[in-house]
Amino acid sequence: xxxxxxxxxxxxxxxxxxxxxxxxxxxxxxxxxxxxxxxxxxxxxxxxxxxxxxxxxxxxxxxxxxxxxxxxxxxxxxxxxxxxxxxxxxxxxxxxxxxxxxxxxxxxxxxxxxxxxxxxxxxxxxxxxxxxxxxxxxxxxxxxxxxxxxxxxxxxxxxxxxxxxxxxxxxxxxxxxxxxxxxxxxxxxxxxxxxxxxxxxxxxxxxxxxxxxxxxxxxxxxxxxxxxxxxxxxxxxxxxxxxxxxxxxxxxxxxxxxxxxxxx
Length: 264
Description:
alpha+beta
């Protein structure tokens, strides 16, 4: 069984009925002339690859299905909300994704729709496991800068440099880290983003941002501040600290090539 994910980008013009598609699906199709709302909808499918093509599904077919059936749903809902001054809260967006699942679930031949996620901006997304549309997953990214040195006093100097390489530099070195926190909650329950952000800022970011992790964070006085250990530390600082949401996962990137996710 394969899991195939296709990101479909599109823009919605909330002020008019211009439905011009454009020609660049990488940037968004429909393109949304002028000021418009940009979305990236990730569609996850499960199925076997076909012997004759090697595809689970041709991604061009996925694009067409989503643009024919899901995008009009977004256009109508958003334009109606603005015209009638209806707040598009996270609860309303969750309802929109549930309706999207209903219109798409039987449209993919020989594959099963298993997940939907919607980027609300480049650093924030809302997602559903299509097997349980009663729970919504909300994720947001944060950045922090810190320095660390990876070293174990139990090892010789030579062994430390062999194991940790540049990260064993006696003067330390820095990273511009990214933290992504995902919580889950019932889909009919609104998530207060400001409160969510405040918990993460006060309970984790303020402790590590612009710090020497080895010297300034007591938890790392005798433990290497690797991304693995940072993810666990963030989890321990955040678990059970949200008003009503449940912590699902914590991901820490130290570069665009290296990251670790911890699920508790």
